[in-house]
Amino acid sequence: MNAVTAELRKFFTTRMWWGMGIAVVLSGMGLAALNGLFLTSSAAAEAGVGSMSDSTLAKNVYTGGIGVGYLLTLAVGVMAIGAEYRHKTITSTFLATPKRVRVMVAKVVALVAIGGFYGVLSLLGSTAVGATILSLRGHPAFPDASVWRSMALGLLVLAVWALIGLGAGILIPNQVAALLVSIGVAWIVEPILTFVFGAQDWGKGFVRFFPSAATTAALDTNTTSGPGSIPVLAWWGGALVLVGYAAVMSVVGSALTVRRDVS
Question: Is the four-CA dihedral 84, 85, 89, 92 of positive or negative sign?
Fold first, then answer.
């Protein structure tokens, strides 16, 4: 617990935590407003997406900010270890807690807590705005229990992406390079690959296992179906795939850190 407390203090005693918090809340509110206004508009009905169920509508509105939030927690995960190497504090960290495994477990636990914290902030902002818009447009704010499930899984998503960032920060010791590569892959490269492979019949079977596709599946916000669409995993399948990514990145990264020389 002392090691976990130390990791949390490293984060919450800097200005970054409230800067990230403001970004998470504003993105949650802004995207909830955009999704709510568009998906309940006549333009959405003409485009063929206005006929979604009230449950799917609410999920898309409330979890819209998660698409930006997971990039922010990904960055937090990278910096959790990258800043240690950048500022040469990794040596003092391991001297204070000689058992490196304990340090890495503490980082994992702290990042899960931080991801969940930002998830709560994102959902508070998006729910406040989204529920208001849905009510004003004549839609129920919380039509069934699956909406609450998607919101709860939103907390898991942000925590998992923070752990993926931790693994990326360990695999790429240069903090700036790790941030550019990890965010670039998640935000640019992966969507391009999904589009390219998803356009091929042979590629549709595996693109649904990509991290972003698994995120969409876990949140249960997919609105496309029918011939030509990319099949998605069930919500529980998406959650398991994400947890698998986090487990692999955390375990591999921790193993490398335990064995890596520091100076």
Answer: positive
* Cα gap 176→138, rounded to integer Å: 47
- Would you tell me how many other CB atoms lie within 10 Å of the CB of residue 252? 13
Q: What is the pTM of this model?
A: 0.89
Residue 227: pLDDT band by 50, 70, 90 thresholds? very low
Integer Cα distance of 207 and 195 in angstroms: 9
Residue from 152, 221, 211 nearest 183 by CA = 211
Q: Could you tell me the end-to-end alpha-carbon distance of the chain, in angstroms, rounded to an integer?
A: 26
Question: For residue 222, is it left (φ>0), alpha (ψ between -120 and 50) or beta?
Answer: beta
Which one, of 223, 187, 230, lies nearest residue 209 by Cα?
Answer: 230
Instruction: Report how far residue 117's alpha carbon sits from residue 128's, in angstroms, rounded to the nearest whole number.
Output: 17
| Average pLDDT of the residues in 140-163 | 93
- Give the C-alpha separation, 183 to 74, whole Å: 7
Q: What is the DSSP string of 207-241?
A: HTTSHHHHHHHHHT-----STTSPP---HHHHHHH
Q: Token pair of 179, please?
A: 């941030």
Across 132-137, average pLDDT: 93
* Per-residue pLDDT reduced to its tens digit, 43-92: 776 666 656 788 999 999 999 899 889 999 999 999 998 888 888 888 88
pLDDT for the residue numbered 48: 62
Q: What is the largest CA-CA distance in the chain?
A: 63
226 phi-psi bin (left φ>0, alpha ψ -120 to 50, beta other): left
